[in-house]
Design brief:
Blueprint: H1 3-21, H2 31-44, E1 48-52, H3 58-69, E2 75-80, H4 82-91, H5 94-100, E3 104-108, H6 113-122, E4 126-131, H7 137-150, E5 151-160, H8 167-179, E6 183-188, H9 191-196, E7 206-211, H10 222-234, H11 239-251
Parallel strand pairs: 1-2, 1-4, 2-3, 4-5
Antiparallel strand pairs: 5-7, 6-7
The structure holds S-adenosylmethionine.
Length: about 250
């Protein structure tokens, strides 16, 4: 096989991969959201991926396909009720292969309890999480707390269905961000909102959460402030101005 033929094969494989994996009709994620997820996977090269809400397994299979295609030795934990997991396995036989080679583990039960138990028993660090099960405040808020506590320094939480139609998810994310000064949120507009009704205003349909990637400003110590203010006062002309400035800034 010559170089041109090899290149042609690579492109054909890539096109087949995109056609199979970015199909917008499979699962609840749109193609553009899957694209974002796959880019995050390339960036983070996750050892552990958590998906809350398996449904028919389309995204679980997509996550495993992306790990395998990029030779990332990660594992996907996918959470849903046992009946739904059984249904996903019936509909997508490809999932069984990933279960057998330990790239995929289904965790049955109701989240957030099943998530809390799994994290406690396994002690895993999460590199990438997809929150997409029960969209109520009472489910999403504790899921975010549990995942953030186990999130690795460069990890991401992808919260799906964050938009006007899911107020519970929106409030859970907003309250979570407001109470965690080390967390950052980045809303992501997907084509879901655009294709459904072009007259509607664009609303975000997912949000990314991660740890603040830079150190937060520390409160300056009393001695640091005093030395700074003395230096500042010395640079002023009159003694009165120096003392006035010094005491004014000291008590501010
Ligand atoms: C929107 S679907 C998930 C779609 C899937 N992530 C995908 O991309 O194809 C939501 C799923 O969450 C599951 N679910 C709802 N509440 C749950 C809970 N408390 N614990 C676990 N799974 C739950 C439902 O059974 C359903 O299969």
């Amino acid at each position: 096989m010559d170089v041109n033929e090899q290149e042609g094969n690579k492109i054909a494989n890539l096109e087949a991969f995109i056609k199979e994996n970015f199909d917008t009709s499979a699962g609840s994620l749109r193609g553009i959201e899957k694209s974002l997820l796959s880019h995050l996977m390339l960036l983070v090269r996750p050892k552990t991926v958590v998906e809350i809400g398996t449904f028919r397994g389309a995204t679980a299979e997509f996550l495993c396909n992306t790990l395998a295609a990029n030779e990332i030795s990660g594992k996907v934990f996918s959470f849903d009720f046992q009946e739904m997991i059984d249904e996903a396995l019936r509909q997508r036989p490809g999932l069984v292969r990933y279960q057998n080679n330990k790239m995929l583990e289904f965790v049955p039960g109701a989240s957030p309890d099943s998530l809390a138990l799994c994290l406690r028993n396994s002690g895993i660090k999460i590199d990438l999480a997809l929150v997409d099960a029960d969209h109520s405040y009472s489910a999403v808020r504790p899921e975010l707390e549990l995942i953030f506590e186990a999130l690795s320094p460069n990890g991401y939480i992808f919260v799906h269905d964050y938009g006007l139609a899911n107020e519970g998810t929106v409030y859970a994310v907003e309250h979570f961000l407001a109470s965690h000064k080390h967390a950052r949120g980045l809303p992501f507009i997907s084509d879901k909102s655009i294709t459904k009704d072009s007259n509607k205003p664009l609303v975000s349909s997912s949000v990314l959460i991660r740890r603040a990637p830079y150190p937060l400003r520390r409160q300056k110590s009393f001695w640091y402030r005093s030395k700074y203010l003395l230096a500042l006062a010395r640079s002023r002309s009159s003694l009165f101005a120096q003392l006035f400035l010094f005491f004014k800034r000291l008590i501010q």
